[in-house]
Write a structure and sequence with these properties.
4 strands, 58% helix, 7% strand, extended, alpha+beta
Length: 227
Amino acid sequence: MRVVVRRARRKRLEQIERAPTSALVRSAIEHFLYAPRADAAGGGAAGSGDEAELAALAAQVDFLPQLEKLEALGQEEWVALLRTYVLEPPCACVIGVPSAKHAAQIPLDIKARQESKRLELGEAGLQGLAASFDAAVAKNETPIPAPFLTAVPIPSYEKVRGVPLLSVRGAASLGIAPASGAGLDAEEQQAVVAHLAASQARPCTCTCTYAHTHMHMLYTSPHRRQH
């Protein structure tokens, strides 16, 4: 279970690094829709309800501390959790069968509801809704003012900081590729080379290229070129 929890942690870190917005927005939306509200509970000191909601939101968005607690659980604790939430609670199985009758009835109901709404609004109401819709489309298609697009200056290429990347190549012996390792000190470069050399169970019979950089990525794609 510790291996599973650690893998979940690495995947979460990778998700945050690859797409931080996507990693956080789902938890925020679920909290907005389903989390209990402090005013619904009734009572509490002024401001304490808001603080409790913010704490609950933070816990739901960032569950890495929860993974740390799970990683520390022992075998007996995991067995107790499985018994409590998986094995012992009563279960029910619901089997759904598509209905041809309802499939034919649904379009008829939709058409009837649309006709009822048309009669309820009348010709004037429909024209008003059409005008509101056309106005919204026109507003949405308004070109973005040029000052908004040019307010943020585009930095020059020389000022953009690149990701430090170290390339190591070789077969029986490994060496650092030319023009590689900018941003990494010599001690770290040699440590990477030594680690790769020590990880080889037997001398490699083909030329390999290794890329090393600092990140939380979980998935790797090794490329091996044989000559």
